Amino acid sequence: MSTSYSILMGLDVLLAIAIIALVLLQQGKGANAGAAFGSGASATVFGARGSSSFLTRATGVLAAAFFINSLTLAYLASNRPKAESVIDKMAIEQPAGEEGPAAPPDTLLEAPAPAPGPEDVPLGAATPSGAAGEGAREDVPQ
To answer: What are phi and psi of 139, to 5 degrees?
Structure first.
């Protein structure tokens, strides 16, 4: 799919360049001043009617081809398969029975001891605010 996309993208660039060239070659309605620079002689190369009908028709054909090619590129770009992340690929490749690499038993950590609660604080000990806790004795200086 990427090869066809690349080919169509290159064709789109070439069509755009060809359309630009054909538009620049065409004479406008006030092109009488261009006859002084040799563009009047080119009318005999393309026939009695001049180059206007040939260049106009060629520009229309290239514009239609450019339009169709651009729509095809948009369709191809919108229907590309979504890229998978590396993590998704690893989850797919791993067998269902395995959870992952297990750590050796000697490296497992024990659960930390719980933090002391209010029942573990001795009577008369200072609290974080600096005041004595409940049940503090009155005769002990603070």
So the answer is: -80, -5
Reference 133, options 123, 119, 115, 120; nearest CA is 123
In a domain, residue 131? The reply is: no
Q: How far apart are CA 125 and CA 25, in angstroms?
A: 97
| Domain range for 76 | 49-80
pLDDT tens by residue, 24-66: 988 776 655 555 555 555 555 555 555 668 888 999 999 999 9
Separation of alpha carbons 118 and 116, rounded Å: 7
- Is-above-0.90 flag for pTM? no
Q: Phi first, then psi: give them for residue 20, nearest 5 degrees.
A: -60, -45
